[in-house]
Amino acid sequence: xxxxxxxxxxxxDSYDFLSEEFRLLFEASNATVFQHPLWLHLMYQDLIPKxxxxxxxxxxxxxxxxxxKLVLPLVRTTYAGLTCIEPADLGICDYNAEISIxxxxxxLLLDTGLREKIVKELRPVHLIFxxxxxxxxxxxxxVLGEGEMGEMENCAHDVKLFAPYEDWQKEIMSSSxxxxxxxxRRKLEDFGAVSYExxxxxxxxxxxxxxxxxxxxxxxxxxxxxxxxxFDFYSTVAKEGVKNGLAQTSILRVGSDxxxxxxxxxxxxxxxFILGGISDGPYSKLSPGILAMDYVLEYRAEQGDKxxxxxxxxxxxxxxxxxxxxxxxxxxQAESVVGALALQAYNQGGIVKTLVKKAANIAGQRxx
Length: 368
Description:
Structural class: alpha+beta
Helix content: 25-40%
């Protein structure tokens, strides 16, 4: 018989995501780069409080050993009077997942009281709503097992990566796209010496992000990167993340001009394209953003990465780099009549969906 008393559930408003126990849990899990210890630490320490959002952290521990088995990094939000429990996303996470040890997943799934115990801790709430959920989140499905599951409109996009890069290009890219990249690289050299640089110095990283902010300001409407809270968050992730291999900030330089800036996250031998900026002017017709991505991929292949993740959004350029779509899910559980009506409105494209999309607009803002 399944044991309904295997795990002790705790509701917390703070947690040490830099602790050794969480690091070990994360490394043993299927969680994504957006549940990385440093990313979550900075979200809960800086960004969530500055945004005035209530933190909600659920943990599950073995009753006998007190060993940490599950963490759900959540927030409590309100949309026009509708109280929601959501992942700690804030529009800047492309994937939302639970953090649980793979070897214990079977035990977690056998605990038939898991959902009841967790949801009890989350009440009162109208709607529990997870978006951008990967396919391997069985425990999360168990927690919201009585709810509704559906497919997201946009997919994630990734591609295998290997060295030597020229061989990868020949296998993955079309001959016409390779020709375009070579031609644009040569034409870029007409403006001056071209160099691709991966930055490590905090001062240089900050200057590059300052420039990226300026580059993006006229290109993207309602860009979260323009808001001080979010810009400060990314700046800290970039400077702290370079120390432990989480983050990479790089630039494409022509002569003395920086024509493109690229910021990405790295996890499990996979580079994730997160944010980019390009300069206007004579370079823009040569697609410096696309060229910067090509340089990034070449560099990451040399570093031994096995995948490149272009993350969420169905922009056409991703297919040119060989990325294939992967369906993401949303999982929702209405906890009241109001929540059920809001979920129905979301599914029908109503105001809830509009608000959620607006909050997550940064997800599709890449190089353009």
